[in-house]
Write a structure and sequence with these properties.
By secondary structure, this protein is of the alpha/beta class. It has one domain: Rossmann fold. The protein has a nine-stranded mixed sheet with strand order 3-4-5-2-1-6-7-9-8, with helices on both faces. Helix 1 crosses helix 3 and helix 3 packs across helix 13. It is globular and about 55 Å long. The N and C termini lie far apart (about 45 Å). It binds S-adenosylmethionine. The site of S-adenosylmethionine (SAM) has 21 residues, from helix 1.
Length: about 325
C-alpha cells in the first residue's frame, strides 16, 4: 500500500529550489561557463551569482556530462534516461543536438513542476520541435506530456506505486538505463529514498545511477547551509544521510546496486581536464579560493551501477 502524502508548505519550498537551480544555470551559461541553448526558455531573468556559485554549477554540470557520456559510449543510443526530480533540466534538448539522443527519455517531478515545464515547452517552438513526432503532435494525457521518445510525468517520488505507474506509462523497460538524481534524493525522508533506490536497483538490471547532492553536513559550514535552507522553509528531510561520500556509496550498495563510488566535488573539480578548468578560471575573478573549496567539499557525486557493462566508470576515464 502507498502512503498518502499530504501537500505541505515545505513541498512548495522544495519546488522553489528548481527555480534557483535554473536561474543559477542560466547565469553561468550567460557568462560562458558552458553552452546551453535552451536554459533561457526556462529562466527568463537572473541576477549575477557569485563566482564560486558559477564554478560550482560548472563542476556539477560537467561531472554529470562526463558520466552521461561514459554511459552512452558503452550502450549506444538504444537505452533510456530517467531524470528523477528533473525540474527544468535541459539535458533532453542538449542531447537531441548531438548524435547521442537516446531511444526514450522520461522526466519525473511534482505535477506542478511538470505542468509548468509542459507549458513552457508548448509555448516555445525550439523546444517543441525537438519532441514532436513528424505530424507535430504531442499528447497531453492527465496532465502528462507524451511524445515519441520523450515523457514528462507528474509524480511524487515518495509514493512508490505512483513512480511505478508513471515509469510504465513512460515506456520504461529493462533496457540499459541512466538514472539521474541531481539534488533531489536529499528532499526525501530516508525511508522513502531507500524504498525508491531499492525499486530502481531491482527494476533496472543494467543501469547507472548518478546522484549529486550535499555531503559532510555535520561540520560548521554544513550547519550554516542547513540554517539558510531552513530559514527559507526548505528542510532537507534526508539531511542525516548527507555524510561523507563513502557513506553515500555504501547507501547505494545497501539498496541493491552492484557497485558504487562517490567523490566530493573538490576531487571531481581537480579531475576535470586542465584546459577546461583554466578556461573557466579565466572567465571571472575568484577572490577567495577558500569559498569554492568549502562549497566543493559539501557536495558529492555518487555513481552506482548494476551490470558488468558499467563496472569501469570513473572520474579519471
Ligand atoms: C534542486 S531542484 C533540481 C532540479 C534538477 N534536477 C536540476 O538539477 O536542475 C530539486 C527538484 O526535485 C524535485 N523534487 C523534490 N522532491 C520531490 C518529490 N518528492 N517528488 C517529485 N519531485 C521532487 C523538486 O520539485 C525540484 O524540481
Amino acid at each position: 500500500m502507498n502512503n498518502i502524502i499530504s501537500w505541505t508548505a515545505e513541498d512548495e519550498a522544495i519546488i522553489a529550489t528548481n527555480t534557483d537551480a535554473t536561474e543559477c544555470k542560466r547565469c553561468a551559461v550567460e557568462l560562458g561557463y558552458w553552452k546551453d541553448d535552451y536554459i533561457k526558455f526556462f529562466a527568463k531573468h537572473t541576477d549575477r551569482k557569485a563566482p564560486e556559485i558559477n564554478r560550482g554549477y560548472y563542476a556539477r554540470v560537467k561531472a554529470m556530462e562526463m558520466f552521461i557520456h561514459q554511459f552512452l559510449e558503452r550502450c549506444g543510443t538504444k537505452c533510456q534516461i530517467i531524470n528523477l526530480g528533473c525540474g527544468f533540466d535541459t539535458l533532453y534538448w542538449r542531447l537531441k543536438d548531438t548524435t547521442q539522443a537516446v531511444s526514450n527519455f522520461i522526466e519525473l517531478d511534482f505535477p506542478s513542476v511538470t505542468a509548468k515545464k509542459c507549458h513552457i515547452i508548448k509555448r516555445n517552438k525550439q523546444l517543441l520541435e525537438k519532441i514532436c513526432k513528424e505530424d507535430g503532435e504531442v499528447m497531453i494525457r492527465s496532465g502528462d506530456l507524451h511524445s515519441d521518445g520523450y515523457h514528462l510525468l507528474g509524480c511524487d517520488l515518495r509514493c512508490l506505486g505512483e513512480v511505478r505507474r508513471k515509469l510504465a506509462a513512460g515506456g520504461a523497460t529493462d533496457a540499459p538505463a541512466l538514472l539521474l538524481a541531481e539534488c533531489v534524493l536529499v528532499y526525501l525522508r530516508p525511508d522513502a529514498a531507500a524504498a525508491l533506490l531499492q525499486h530502481l536497483a531491482a527494476a533496472f538490471p543494467r543501469c547507472v545511477l548518478l546522484v549529486y547532492e550535499q555531503c559532510n553536513l555535520g561540520d560548521k559550514f554544513g550547519e550554516v547551509m542547513l540554517r539558510n535552507l531552513n530559514a527559507r522553509g526548505c528542510a532537507l528531510a534526508g539531511e542525516r544521510l548527507c555524510r561523507a561520500p563513502a557513506a553515500q556509496a555504501e547507501r547505494m550498495r545497501a539498496a541493491g546496486f552492484d557497485a558504487a563510488r562517490a567523490w566530493d566535488m573538490e576531487v571531481v573539480w581537480r579531475a576535470l581536464p586542465e584546459d577546461d578548468r583554466a578556461r573557466v578560471e579565466a572567465l571571472e575573478m575568484l577572490d577567495e579560493r577558500e569559498l569554492l573549496l568549502q562549497l566543493n567539499s559539501h557536495y558529492a557525486l555518487t555513481v552506482a551501477t548494476r551490470g558488468d557493462l558499467f563496472a569501469d566508470l570513473d572520474i579519471n576515464a
